[in-house]
Design brief:
Radius of gyration: 27 Å
Number of strands: 29
Number of helices: 17
Strand content: 15-25%
Largest sheet: 8 strands, parallel, barrel
Distance between the termini: 81 Å
Helix content: 25-40%
Oligomer: single chain
Shape: globular
Structural class: alpha/beta
């Protein structure tokens, strides 16, 4: 017993020494200086320079560890807020399992967070078997606790609780398996300063503890002789303040910027995720949401830091919410929306876009609750595959949280769901990885993607012996003569007929996929590979990079793949590589007026004039340029806007 007491005293002295010797006042930091580089904080400049990296676009599927001290309670998401809200379900749960928040507060839950059943190597191997091609770790949630060796937040997983650098360990394991690595930041000013902190400064209004302040009102001095000696509760809970509507003007906002910068520089993530709006026009729970003016600073800083790396991915991803759509956060500045859409990856938590998007997006979903909740049910493997393919078909990726117990392990049921998902993706990977949307995404029964000249049709909840694919009718401009239809899983060639109503495929009775325990997924989710002879390279296919070009989808007029890329500023460049002896450029005429220069292998090979006359009709799929015969081997083609507005729909190679 005496040895335990001495060890605790020594540990508290070590924590206090670390906190005191930093000499950093985290509430009075100078403004963060943005890393120098080609990216400025102007949205127009960022949008012209940035391309979503190919490693992320081709990955399509990521794994997420949404895991922090709140998981220890095992009573679901937002626990660090709910436990302080008198009368709420989580408040009652906290009283029953831990005690009153004036005596056992969130700081105690952080201290008691045990991670002894966490096996990051085993989990990473499971994520890989599940088919994930990138991984994201929790950096800090709304609770304001940093899961890394944080320079600017003493309440972190190295000082308190696990005594481990959770993010650092995840990063090391991800790199071991060549898995691109991301960090999630939920501790944004509006959520943390505005919504999570203020509820902690209160007390019960009824009962035995009426009027007794919750533990957020304790001070550093109150910690003398306690386990948290040397730590200041205000650093975790925030100093007392009102509802935080103007959270971007708070001292926390600047501290938040330094903490994000700290994690970026320490762990060199390939991706950063923000559970927050990129703009500033949304409200939630009476709080003004959004990072607003901070967003371009975060993005420019991250992109410039990454560009100077000597190792790892120099092309990175930053993800934010509220970029258009149902929760558009740019209502106060609509002119910025098309620029922001091209400057980062928008997040659409739990909601998949309802149409094909011009620029990539990400949807986040969880197998169970975001933080583990006892007794909560799991989403099935069939539901996850449906969500994955809905995202893929609309130009998105899916990030899946595999909910962990507080101690770091996962349920056997969750593990089996992951294995079922992985088995299905392993068989049907060509419809997933590296694919692009087709003309239309499909419907609730059939979901389309395309890759390598082939079209893939994912049959959802299929039970019949035949299927009619109306999107592949004989009058579809993007589809040539269909040469074969086969079941991807078995390689079996299938009989088909085609007319103006669609492509009818005779399949037969479903045969369950071996090694998939989810019966619905095993029998009802089959993938057809449709081959045809109209082999075109789309304006947004893998390998394309641009400077300044924009995109338009769902044109509905017969463009290849129902989309085009266009530029309205001189100097904009569109570039890709190809192998062939000739290349032709396909573009609509009668829509734009401009002049485009064609360069092949760095040499000017001609120009294309887009002369729109008054009253001209738009003619799609026009061959506006054809190169002379080239040497065998690989080549590059670059399209340069010389003046006006120019476009490209597709390339044809010979």
């Amino acid at each position: 017993m005496q040895g335990t007491i001495i060890a605790a005293i020594l540990l508290s002295i070590q924590v206090a020494a670390k906190s005191d010797t930093t000499g950093i006042d985290i509430w009075n930091m100078p403004p963060l200086e943005i890393e120098s580089g080609e990216y400025s904080t102007d949205w127009n400049d960022i949008s012209r320079l940035y391309n979503v990296p190919s490693w992320w676009r081709e990955a399509k599927f990521g794994a997420w560890s949404h895991w922090d001290p709140q998981s220890a309670a095992e009573d679901g998401d937002w626990y660090a807020r709910g436990m302080y809200m008198e009368g709420s379900q989580q408040y009652r749960y906290h009283l029953e399992h831990f005690g009153h928040p004036s005596e056992y507060g969130y700081k105690e839950l952080c201290s008691d967070w045990k991670t002894d059943l966490w096996d990051p190597d085993d989990l990473m191997q499971l994520y890989i078997r599940m088919g994930a091609r990138y991984f994201v770790a929790m950096g800090s949630h709304h609770d304001n606790f940093d899961c890394w060796d944080s320079e600017y937040q003493p309440w972190n997983s190295v000082n308190v609780g696990p005594r481990q650098d959770i993010v650092g360990i995840w990063a090391e394991v991800a790199h071991k398996y060549d898995m691109p690595f991301g960090i999630g930041f939920h501790n944004t000013p509006a959520r943390t300063w505005g919504q999570f902190m203020p509820v902690r400064y209160k007390s019960d209004r009824r009962g035995d503890k009426a009027g007794v302040p919750y533990d957020a009102m304790l001070t550093r001095q109150d910690g003398q002789g306690q386990w948290w000696e040397g730590l200041d509760p205000a650093d975790l809970y925030g100093p007392v303040h009102e509802n935080g509507r103007n959270s971007l003007d708070s001292p926390f906002a600047n501290q938040f910027m330094w903490r994000v910068d700290d994690a970026i520089r320490k762990y060199s993530p390939d991706m950063i995720y923000f559970d927050e709006h990129a703009g500033d026009s949304q409200e939630d729970l009476g709080i003004n949401m959004g990072l607003g003016r901070l967003t371009p600073q975060i993005v420019a800083n991250f992109y410039n830091i990454a560009a100077k790396r000597s190792e790892g991915n120099r092309q990175v991803v930053a993800t934010f919410k509220g970029v258009g759509g149902r929760y558009n956060s740019f209502q106060n500045s609509p002119e910025l929306l098309p620029l922001v859409d091209r400057s980062l990856v928008k997040s659409t938590e739990l909601y998949t876009e309802d149409s094909i998007m011009a620029f990539p997006f990400q949807t986040e979903v969880s197998l169970q609750d975001w933080h583990y909740k006892q007794g909560a049910s799991y989403r099935s493997a069939a539901e996850i595959i449906t969500r994955l393919m809905q995202n893929v078909s609309r130009n998105g990726c899916l990030l899946l949280n595999i909910t962990q117990h507080g101690r770091g392990n996962i349920d056997d049921e969750a593990r089996q769901i992951c294995l079922d998902i992985g088995r299905w993706i392993e068989i049907n990977k060509d419809a997933v990885y590296g694919s692009r949307p087709f003309d239309v995404w499909g419907n609730e029964h059939v979901i389309y993607s395309r890759q390598g000249g082939n079209i893939y049709a994912v049959l959802v909840d299929w039970e019949g012996e035949s299927v009619m694919l109306d999107a592949l009718s004989a009058d579809n401009a993007s589809v040539g003569r269909i040469t074969s239809v086969e079941m991807v899983e078995s390689g079996q060639k299938l009989a088909f007929t085609r007319n103006t109503n669609g492509l009818k495929v005779e399949i037969g009775h479903p045969v369950p996929t071996p090694d998939i325990t989810d019966k619905e997924l095993a029998s009802g989710f089959k993938v057809l590979r449709i081959s045809h002879d109209r082999l075109w390279f789309n304006d947004d296919d893998p390998g394309v990079s641009t400077y300044g070009w924009n995109r338009r989808c769902n044109t509905g007029r017969g463009d290849f793949n129902n989309d085009i890329s266009f530029s309205d500023q001189p100097g904009d460049r569109w570039k890709t590589g190809f192998t062939g002896r000739r290349v032709s450029i396909i573009a609509p005429t009668g829509e734009f007026t401009g002049l485009m220069q064609v360069e092949i292998d760095g040499k000017i090979r001609g120009t294309v004039s887009f002369n729109q006359s008054p009253g001209a009709t738009v003619s799609v799929r026009q061959k506006v340029f054809k190169s002379r015969r080239l040497k065998r081997g690989p080549h590059t083609i670059e399209l340069v806007n010389l003046k006006g507005t120019v476009s490209v729909d597709a390339l044809l190679f010979e």
